[in-house]
User: What shape does this take?
Amino acid sequence: MHARPTILLPLVLLAILAMLTFWIDYSVQAPEPKVDGSNRHDPDYVLNNFITTRSDEKGDLRYRLTAEEMRHYPDDDTTELELPHFTRFEIGKPFTLIEGKKGFVSSDADKIEFVGDVKVVRQAYNGKGEMVVLTDRLDVFPDDERAVTDRPVVITQEPKTVIHATGMIYDKKNQTVQLMNRVKAHYEKPKMDISSTPNDLNRRAADAMRLELDMNATANQIDRRVRPAGAVQPEIKLNLSKDID
Assistant: This one.
């Protein structure tokens, strides 16, 4: 009369153990890869001759970004550009053009990374020559009007100003360039225009003398053979509207 419960109890325990074993095995198994392509870094759309612009609250054009080809990747919501050109506009001030071989736009579009033969051109204005910055990588923050790199840079400005450095912060809003390390500068006084007024000549001569003294002081700091222990080379900050004429 009592044999059936005695037999059923081990069977129930075995069934529970089997179910527990199956559940543990199912829990530790890696999920099967999706076959919908969401895990692949493939573009979901491609645009040729890509152009996008942004305006301010008054409707004035702030910047324009173009590229020969734009590819958007849904897995990380990033955008890749071929031969990108970025132009920053501001009323009454010179425009700035940035170009490179490739560009990468962050998912929130607050940063554009330019890679390969990067060139920054600031338009000539108010008698000041065109300024060109060359490097191999540059991070541009359009809303902050800044461009940053930790790579070697070469800055040239007509007629014969050449600056070499490693690391740069370009501030369009404040018209300054901050050079971080290994700064070397070559500067030649521009020829005076004999048609200029005496006040213009005096101002230009004073500006040239001041910049030459600044450049010489910078060169002395950089080329100094002996530095105190633990000394750190100071950063060099140039004002584009004053120091580079």
